[in-house]
Amino acid sequence: MRMESSVFKKVLSTIDISKMAESIANREVSPVYSFLDSGASMDLQILRQEGPTRNDKLIIMYKEAKRSEKDPKKSFENEGVTAKKVIPLITRDVEET
User: Fold this and answer.
1) Rounded Cα–Cα distance for residues 25 and 78 (Å)
2) Most CB within 10 Å of its CB: which of 18, 64, 65, 69?
3) How confident is the model at residue 60 (pLDDT cuts 50, 70, 90)?
4) From its phi and psi, is residue 47 left (phi > 0), alpha (psi between -120 and 50) or beta?
5) According to the model, what pLDDT value does residue 6 have?
């Protein structure tokens, strides 16, 4: 999945961020933690296990990171405001052929 949400792009173009996506029981998100420079984009892989069809959501948590920080996970432990964006993920049944 490529993050193409206009709201998310606007955020990316204005600040340097660290990104965190939380993996839930039947979903895996990769990468979970990452640095992303202002104006940059990144591919995000979402793997959903079999289960009932429903509308899911992806919560992206982000905050400004200092250039000196090396570990994106530790970046969230430091002081500073953490913001979030909710992106709807729509699932549907697909018949395999």
Assistant:
1) 27
2) 18
3) confident
4) beta
5) 33
3 vs 43: CA distance, rounded Å: 7
Stated pTM of the model: 0.60
**Which residues, including other chains, have CB under 8 Å from residue 70's CB and lie 6 or more apart?**
none
- Domain annotation for the chain: domains and CATH numbers: 6-90 (2.60.40.10)
Q: What is the torsional sign of CA 6, 61, 54, 97?
A: positive
Two tokens at 21?
């996506």
Tokens found for residue 10:
């606007």
Distance CA 20, CA 92 (A): 25
